[in-house]
Write a structure and sequence with these properties.
Length: about 500
């Protein structure tokens, strides 16, 4: 196998391996992203449920504390606030406010030192200045705009952080209340700036409590998740891709089954027509026999002896011949006027082809392609395979009625020649090259050839001598009145292009 073919196999195998890996990995990545999105949605649902429950507890506590709004920070009031705080989960304090300032706290009692100002927003985030300074906390506000008095419940940022950290993926979860954002990455930072919701993958869960829980993933985040969770699958995909590419490399280098290789070659028009010119007694070209050659993309020109038996054994000889008919028509139809008058084109036809009526249609189609002048079509019947007397002879006679010439090839080397001559009229009888080659060295061969010629004349058939390789053979055959000649003395089989260049 040449280097070019080897490099092509390597390249195709590499591209196949890479394509399989990238395609499979991409599908797996998409599945991983959907999985991450699904997991995140479930996480956010759970977190939202926990936060709603936490806010619900605080709401219940405030509903019970509303009656103390505007009251003095008496011992009874303070005790009631502290009981509510103690009985309410996740509450850090319950405070009474007036004009936005705390004046009574369940933690500090009556106080004017808490300078924390509260907005009128029902749910808001603040940073602690006294308890756990810098740590955010959430405020639920029952505030009367008319009286400027109200009750607030504070939820410690540690509780919020613990809830946000419930996520089963190692990526941040954010709680957004108004313009403020608390992150699961830290329990002591409130991001007072808007965090842009513009990640590669964004999943959010709004709440009826007027807050939003969401996660943002960058492209890098999704890839880190993908790689960390799909290592085994990626390794298996890589192994499968390499195996597939290696298998392709291996099997592409193996010789296909001869039948399949030939079938594919016929379909791709790799089986092409060559022609061996036929000459008259004056050594002028007057026709040609169409022969098949396989132009193999790797092995070059393959002789018919290497593939015609395969075609005959696997019912491919008819498709092969039909392909040659079409190709010869295509190559000669534009140059037919340059051919000598009476130019004949001979095709070898297998006996099985004569079992099918479409042989007649195929020959008609061949001739239809020639507009100005048509060549004489000669169908050569080989004597090395026996014809079916009932079917084939009828088709042969029908072809002759349409002025298609019939030649008996390899005369005297196969089945009963006389039986053929009895059942069918032939226009040409071809003298086999085995007689031609010995006509000089063996006297009795000359007598056999003379008898063949006399027999041909008696049935009205002309002779074509095959395998003429020397001038002596040519002169001897001429002396016996052979009319046409074919052999290496005149020309080897050549391509159709070479034939047109040399003889037209």
């Amino acid at each position: 196998m040449d280097i070019k073919s080897l490099n092509k196999r390597i390249l195709i195998s590499f591209i196949t391996t890479l394509s399989l890996f990238l395609l499979s990995s991409s599908v797996l990545y998409i599945q991983s992203v959907y999985s991450l999105k699904s997991i995140t949605k479930n996480n956010l649902n759970q977190i939202t449920q926990q936060l709603d429950r936490m806010i619900g507890y605080a709401e219940n506590a405030l509903n019970r504390a509303d009656k103390y709004a505007g009251s003095d920070c008496s011992k009874e009031t303070l005790e009631a606030l502290r009981v509510l705080e103690a009985n309410t989960p996740n509450i850090r304090s319950i405070n009474l406010i007036s004009n936005g300032h705390t004046y009574c706290s369940s933690i500090y009692g009556e106080t004017s030192e808490l300078k924390q100002e509260y907005s009128e927003t029902r749910l808001s985030v603040y940073i602690s200045k006294v308890i756990n300074p810098g740590v955010p906390f959430v405020v639920l506000n029952h505030y009367s705009q008319e009286s400027k008095k109200g009750v607030v419940a504070t939820i410690d940022g540690f509780y919020i952080y613990n809830v946000l950290s419930m996520a089963r993926v190692n990526f941040p979860v954010y709680l957004r209340i108004g313009d403020d954002v608390i992150s699961s990455l830290s329990n002591n930072i409130v991001n007072k700036q808007n965090i842009a919701i513009n990640g590669y993958l964004h999943v959010q869960k709004p709440s009826q409590e007027n807050y939003l829980v969401y996660s943002d993933y960058s492209f890098r985040d999704t890839w880190l998740y993908f790689i960390s969770n799909e290592k085994t699958s990626l390794i298996l995909i890589a192994m499968f891709s390499v195996l597939a590419g290696s298998s392709l490399f291996y099997f592409s280098g193996k010789e296909p089954h001869p039948k399949e290789a030939l079938k594919r070659a016929i379909k791709k028009n790799e089986i092409v027509p060559w022609i061996q010119p036929i000459f008259n007694r004056d050594a002028k070209v007057c026709g040609g026999e169409i022969l098949a050659r396989w132009l193999h993309p790797e092995k070059g020109v393959i002789a018919p002896d290497n593939f015609i038996p395969v075609a005959e054994e696997n019912d491919l000889i008819i498709p092969l011949t039909r392909s040659l008919l079409k190709q010869v028509q295509h190559q000669l139809k534009d140059t037919i006027t340059a051919l000598p008058d009476g130019f004949h084109v001979a095709f070898n036809i297998s006996p099985d082809y004569f079992n099918h009526d479409f042989l007649i249609d195929d020959v008609d189609d061949f001739l239809v392609g020639f507009k100005e002048r048509k060549p004489i079509v000669v169908l050569e019947v080989t004597e090395r395979q026996q014809l079916n007397d009932d079917i084939n002879m009828n088709i042969i006679n029908h072809l002759r009625d349409k002025n298609i010439m019939i030649a008996l090839d390899d005369f005297g080397t196969g089945y009963s020649s006389l039986s053929y001559l009895k059942n069918c009229k032939f226009d040409y009888i071809k003298i086999d090259k085995s007689f031609t080659q010995d006509i000089i060295s063996k006297t009795h061969i000359g007598n056999i050839v003379k008898n063949i010629i006399e027999l041909s004349n008696s049935v009205g058939a002309k002779n074509i001598a095959e395998g003429v390789e020397t001038t002596e053979q040519f002169e001897e055959l001429k002396s016996l009145n052979v009319e046409f000649y074919q052999g290496y003395l005149f020309s080897r089989p050549i391509s159709m292009d070479d034939f047109k260049d040399k003889y037209l």
